[in-house]
Each structure stands twice: as structure tokens, then as C-alpha cells.
Amino acid sequence: MDFETYEQADPIVASVIRKMYQRSQVGIKKYGTTMERDDLSYSEWLTHLQEELMDSIIYLEKLKQCTNTKQN
Length: 72
Fold this sequence. Notes:
By secondary structure, the protein is mostly helical. The protein has helices at 3-9, 11-31, 42-71.
């Protein structure tokens, strides 16, 4: 199945795939490498993941506060 057919069959997943590709391009331009890099230790990768997840919790909290403000 080509991507165009897949996009029609599952547009939500296709949208995520497009966004992942775009995000990859931004990362390559910004950092000059992909996730295939081998200059980080396992522990450093875990730290990066932890930091990203902490950022996501901050976004979640902001959205919850916005929702609570609208409901009150």
C-alpha cells in the first residue's frame, strides 16, 4: 500500500507519520544528526527522555488549568 492509499485508509495515523517526519527534519537541521547518533550513553538517553516527559507534564498541567478556568 502506498502512502496516499494509507492516508485515505487511516488519516489520523497518516497525520502522525507526517508530523514525525517534519519533526525529524527540524531535529536534523537543528542538531545535525538523527536518533542514530552514538555519542550518548544509555544513561544520557534516559535523562533526555526524562526531561522530555517532564516537559510534557508541564504542557498537560497548563491545558488542565485552561480547562478548569473555562469550566469555572
